[in-house]
Amino acid sequence: MNPRSCLVLLCVASLTAGCGGGKKGDQELLQGTWTVVSAEGKEGRGDDMLNSRMTFFGSEVSVKKISEKGVNGTFQLEEGKDPKEIDLVLKNGATEVKIQALYSLEPDTLKLCFADPKQPRPTKLVATQDQGVMTLKRAKP
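-> structure tokens emitted (141 positions)
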């Protein structure tokens, strides 16, 4: 290999090595299992949702309530918007439901605000008569 080719390879290697050391995006931070610690909606507290789990892997999501069979699907983030948006497509057999929601993400806390699937996306991350908010904590390994 000639010296110029070696120099080019070294430059490319140093540039790509620095790519992974920057700030992680929400897609990467979201990965793993989260447990519902609180839920509020139009009917008040959603205690039946407590301890339910959401697992994010790549662009896939699994939602499982305690003592029930889970549902799987996909998700897509719009972290550049304010407030941040998440779209979930959940599948249960032949039934597919699209949920447009808002989210906020801190290292170990995830908040999701969603309306009924037939309603438009919420505009604020608060529980109201027409939308619910779930707070999840990162599950301990």
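The radius of gyration is 19 Å.
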